[in-house]
Amino acid sequence: MNISKKLYKFEPPSTLKPARHLYCSGCGHGIIHRIVAEVIEELGVREKTVGIAPVGCAVFAYDYWNFDVTEAAHGRPPAVATGIKRVLPDRIVFTYQGDGDLAAIGTAEIVHSANRGENITVIFVNNATYGMTGGQMAPTTLLGQKTTTTPYGRKIDADGYPLKVCEMLAPLEGVKFLARCSVSNPANVAKTKKAVKKAFECQVEKKGFALVEVLSMCPVDWEMTPLEACKWVDEVMTKTFPLGIIK
Amino acid sequence: MKTNDKSNKNRKVPMQGNIALCEGAIAGGCDAYYGYPITPQNEVASYMSKKMPESGRIFLQSESELSAINMVFGSALAGKRAMTSSSSPGISLMQETISYLCGCELPCVIANIQRGGPGLGNIAGSQADYFQSVKGGGHGDYRMITLAPAGVQEMYDFALVSFKLAEKYRNPVMILSDGYTGQMMEPVELKSYDSVAGDSAAGQEKYLPDWVLDGCKGREPRKIRSLIMEEGALEKHNYKLARKYQNIRENEVLVDLDRMDDAEVAIVAFGIAARVAKSAVDIARDAGIRAGIIRPITLWPFPEKEIFSITQKIKKILVAEMNMGQMVEDVRLASGGLVPVKFIGRPGGGIFTPEEIYEHLKKII
Fold this sequence. Notes:
The structure holds 2 protein chains of 2 kinds. The termini of chain A are far apart. Chain A is α/β, with parallel strands linked by helices.
C-alpha cells in the first residue's frame, strides 16, 4: 500500500552519504546533520552548497554530508564562509558550529559576520559543553552545571553567566532570522527542521544573516542516559535558553 | 593612472612600495583582498578598497587579522586568487591559519610589511620576521615560499607573479617586505606577467583546478581538510608535502649575484638591507676591496647550493640583516664552515648606513 510505504519507508536524503556516524549514543548531531541534509535536498541546492565543518565532534561532517564541505580553524567558520560567499555569491554557504567554536573562541567572527549581514546560514549546536575534548565548561554551560573544569558546578563569581547567543545577536541590524530550537523530542525536531529551512530560505532569497541555535544532547559528557539527556534539555536547559523564533 | 595604456610600456612611473604591491597584485589577477589596519602598510588596504571594486573584485575590511586570513582561506578554497597584507604583529595573528593553508594546500598571497618587534615594537621597517616566515611561525611541518623584494619595482613584480607561483604548488606565498620598502617611492615599470616571469603562459588564464569547492554540480562532492585521522594517513600526507617542498627547493630558488665574479669577500643580505649593502660595496670597490653581494630573493627555498659553491671562491662572508642574526644561521649552514661567516645587525627598526657596513667589512677582512 502506498500510504504505508510513505509512512514507514524512511530513506535517507541524497545529501547524506551512506556512512556510519562516529557520534555517541544519544548525541544530537546525527539528527541535526540529517535536518540540514533534508533541507538542502528539499531546496534543491545540493549542487551549489558549500558547508563549513567546525573543530569539535562535528568536524567529520564532511564524511557524512554528500556535498562540498571544508573544515575551518576553531572559531573561524564565519570568516571562511564570508571568503567563499563574497567570491561565489550565488552559492549556498553555511557554517555548522558548536558552542565552544561559536560562542567562545569565535565570538568576534560570528558577531561581525552577523553585523555585516553576511548572506550565510549558521547552524549553532548548543550542548552546554565541549564534547570532543571530554566535557569541559562551555560559554553556554548552565549555572551549577558540573563539567570536568567546573567540578563544583559553574559559579557566577568565577565563570560568569551562560552566554545567550541569540539574544546577543538579535539587536544587530544585519541579522534577518534567529531561532532557538531543540532536538530533544519529535515535536521539537519537526520545529527545528522548519527553522533550519527558514534560515536557508533566508539565504536563497538574499535577505541576509540567519542563525538557528539548536539545543542538543551530550549524554556521555553530561553523564546521563540518552533519555535523561533529552529530559534535561526539555526541563532544565530550556529555562536558561528559552525556545522560539527570536527574530 | 593608465596602467594598461600601451604608450606607457617601458615608461616608469613614481610609486610607493605599498601601492606597487597593490598594482602588481591586481595585474596578477587578484580576485579578493582582505585586510585589517596596521602601520606601516595601511596604504595597501586604502588603495585596494578603491581599486578592487572598480574592476568588480572583492575588497573587505575584516574585524581582525585572524578573520582576514580566514577569509583568504575561504576565497582560496573557492578557487579564487585571494590576498591579505599586514605588518609583523598582525602576521603573528595569522600564523594558525597559515599552518591550515599549508596543511590544506591552498594557494594564496600574504604580504608582511615588517616593523620592529618583539611585541608591538615600533612602526619603522625591520627584518626580524625572517625566522617566522621561513622556519614556520605556525605549528606543524610546513614551508612557505618566501619572496624578499629589495625595492619598489620588486614589490610590483613579486606581487604580479606570486599568485601563479602559489597555484603551481598549491601553497601560500609570503612577500616578506619591510616598512622602508613599503613606504619609499621609486620609479616602477608596470610590466606584464610574461616579462616578469619569463613564462609564455598568460598570468590571468582561467584557473579552476580539480580540488576547488564551488558546489558539486556534475561531479562528486569534495572536501578540504587538514585533519587526517586515519591510521598512517597523516604521515603519508606529510611525506607528500615534503616531496612538494623538495620540488620547490630544486626549482624555485632565486638569488641575485652582484660583482661576485672577482669578489674575495661577499656580503649576504636580503631586501632593503641588500640595497644598503650595494652602496657599501661601491665604497669598498673604490677603496680597492674586491667585495660583492649575494642577495637571496627567495628566503625559502634558500639558495644553499649557490652560497656553498661561492664559498669555494671567496675568503670571507659578511651577513648584514636588520635583526640580530636570523638568516646568518642559514648562511652558516650553507657555507659548510668552509669560510668564516661574520655578522652585522641593526635590530628594532634601525637601518644601516652604507658606511657602517663598509667599516665593518674593513674590520673583518
